[in-house]
Amino acid sequence: xxxxxxxxxxxxxxxxxxxxxxxxxxxxxxxxxxxxxxxxxxxxxxxxxxxxxxxxxxxxxxxxxxxxxxxxxxxxxxxxxxxxxxxxxxxxxxxxxxxxxxxxxxxxxxxxxxxxxxxxxxxxxxxxxxxxxxxxxxxxxxxxxxxxxxxxxxxxxxxxxxxxxxx
Amino acid sequence: xxxxxxxxxxxxxxxxxxxxxxxxxxxxxxxxxxxxxxxxxxxxxxxxxxxxxxxxxxxxxxxxxxxxxxxxxxxxxxxxxxxxxxxxxxxxxxxxxxxxxxxxxxxxxxxxxxxxxxxxx
Lengths: 167, 121
Known about the structure:
The complex is a heterodimer of chains A (167) and B (121).
Chain A: H1 3-24, H2 29-44, H3 56-82, H4 88-99, H5 103-116, H6 120-131, H7 136-143, H8 147-166
Chain B: H1 7-24, H2 28-43, H3 51-70, H4 75-78, H5 83-92
């Protein structure tokens, strides 16, 4: 895949990539934006290369996921070092409060909260299957887990989400 | 507010969320340009010295200096006998040393001077 093709593919998946980055960054838009830039930088610099073993989308999503985890770790270390009291949850809560003007936005905000309360792997598998239309096998590839493990997370996630939505 | 739950509902919620996210997604060109700018920054040659390298060199230097200071000097140096004096003792057998004989010149092993055995000066 040459540079022009690579760019075209990245551009095609950009909106979806942003959605996935948002999910990996606890729906923090600034962090998702930053993660996506780092992913493109990695690809440009040749530090992440598409080997053709999986589909382009699966490969791209796994790069985004790994980058988001690395960035999250880096931020935690930085916060510990600076002893900062700022928490990302404050910003998310503010964004959600702004959305509560319309019922539709309210439902979305509630759904985001319920989704955010799930354990990471359960949230990831639900997002990949329902939001990004991936199969369970593809979701397992992105998450770097076995198909059985992905299925378990999927079932538990759905059950938990249903429970938190009803209460 | 409807809180009914089923598979279709879950699909719908995720669909709404996706539409909203895609609406708010930053343009691709912005993210791409920012990544390109960062690439050029990464490729810029390093102007500050590499701290690990400098630290390593400083440690190596420290070890060498400490080694020179701590390692005891050689035994010959401690006794104050240099290689030259050792050589003179071995080669001349001590008694042959002109210094020990009070500067009388060459003397034989039996204590006779060169003059005594008839060696012309």
